């Protein structure tokens, strides 16, 4: 996966972890707003919706089991490909 050593464990922003724990303990699965694109998705994030900032707006990301171990930023693209040049016919 990444270059982070195993003994350190996955990186998750402490404030984000706090927001997630509050959302889970509150019982209601609210949208968790975050700027931390580099945080790793943990198994207890499954089922939650995150609003991940892409530099312009917040992109909603619904976490499922296949996303565990990846970064939040992988699911909020920062660039939009509009095609090469002017391809109108």
Automatic annotation (TrEMBL):
The keyword RNA-binding belongs to this UniProt entry's keyword annotation: yes
Record-linked InterPro entries: Ribosomal_uS19 (IPR002222), Ribosomal_uS19_bac-type (IPR005732), Ribosomal_uS19_CS (IPR020934), Ribosomal_uS19_SF (IPR023575)
Family matches, as PROSITE patterns: RIBOSOMAL_S19
Gene Ontology cellular component list: ribosome
Keywords: Ribonucleoprotein, Ribosomal protein, RNA-binding, rRNA-binding
Family: Belongs to the universal ribosomal protein uS19 family.
Entry function: Protein S19 forms a complex with S13 that binds strongly to the 16S ribosomal RNA.
NCBIfam families from the UniProt entry: rpsS_bact (TIGR01050)
UniProt protein name: Small ribosomal subunit protein uS19
Lineage: Bacteria, Pseudomonadati, Pseudomonadota, Alphaproteobacteria, Rickettsiales
Gene: rpsS
